[in-house]
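Entry for the shared binder. Reason: the reviewer on the internal report wants the predicted structure included alongside the sequence.
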Amino acid sequence: METILIKGLQLVLALALLVTIHEFGHFFFARLFGMRADRFYLFFNPWFSILRYDPRTKKWSFFKRNLTEQEDFERSQAVKTDTEKNGKSSWRDTVYGIGWVPLGGYVSIGGMIDESMDDKQKEQMELPPHPTDFRAKAAWKRLLVMAGGVVFNFILAIVIYIGIAYHWGEKYIPYENATEGMDFVEAAQAVGFRNGDIPYMADGELLDAKENGVLIKMAEAKEVTVLRKKDGSGYDTVSIAIPEKFILSISEAGGFMGYRLPVVVKEVMSGEPAADAGLLTDDRIVAIGDSVTPSYTEFARAIQSYADKDVDLTVLRGSEQIKLHAHPTPEGKLGFQFKPITEVYEVKTIKYNLLESVPKGVKDGVNQLTSYVSSLKYIFTKEGAQSVGGFAAIGNMFPNKWSWLSFWEITAFLSVILAFMNVLPIPALDGGHIVFALWEVITRRKPALKVLIYSQYVGMLFLVLLLLYANANDIYRFLIK
């Protein structure tokens, strides 16, 4: 339960930041070009709002019903009158709020057809436009307003990557330092990878553990070369043919590979079987009975098979190999802490000053975008459609324990996804509005009002169905499959 709460909190915080920045992008350009913004909401607010602030009245409302269509209309008319007197609109013309449905957010821009329109607003669309209306402005200005959310989301991702590079630098374990290699998911083992393999090349290009998108590069390659331990000493170079759509197989498996953790003792618990057996800090368990344990993967299976039984442990102490006698608990425990992987393998650290962090952040943002766009070509296949996930899948991206570094890395990645998905030419998304604006710029003709309204309905229906499908996939994967 604690894990679900931690993941859920990270997801909500990330969505709140991403949605706020996205909608602020629209708001920024709308205000820049003198458009009237009636509402600015984080999350959706059907029937009532958690929080609402009206700068015109300086009134805060908590858990109050929304304004009726008539009240909203009267306020909008008052704002129009004031802007005519003052000659310009103001940020005080906007009602700011927080809704209770964390599926997005919106900026309601006067004279614009979007999902926040009510019947009164639609009636107003039949009348001549007000000077502060969205539809009264030049097509290129409306184009920038609609692109603002996408632009701000991508800028946010780059800013986060810059901050990560400056604050944390880059810490990674070079593949060649991981002497025990990698653990691979079953889908990867099925095509020829073996636990213990060390990634070396993809399509003849050397693999670098610090690069963003290295796993996607391997999954999309035609051939991956790995280093595989020989029975004696040294490594063989082994080439593995990667089948088409392999990336979908590992996506469904929830990953590709991870560093193998050698079983090295960090601390022995007093009174536990490990202490009775004579295990010491820095001892490495390389075998349990007849089972070789080069990593935790093999150790976990082996120790369970000797639960509440006497067994010999083969331990590497310094350069000497010794035998110890142990009796694991009925639960299959010895009672010691493992050394974390960062204390077992040599970690390489790269520090960046502020000037160095900027190009690094830009490079990471661009690399994430190109990698994500490249992987989207599979979404239109049967396997790709089945891999689409909803909020549970997104929440599951976050770690079980709070980590600011992981939080910001995932938030930046989600910001890249949000930027790209919103630029797709789907009605009701920013990309759909951008297409109509581009059409007007090119043809000098405005699309008919009915076309705009009905395309909005079609787009919203498509998005609702996609949302239901994605979350149904989550339910199937996590509760049934």
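Summary line for the report: The chain is about 45% helix and 20% strand.
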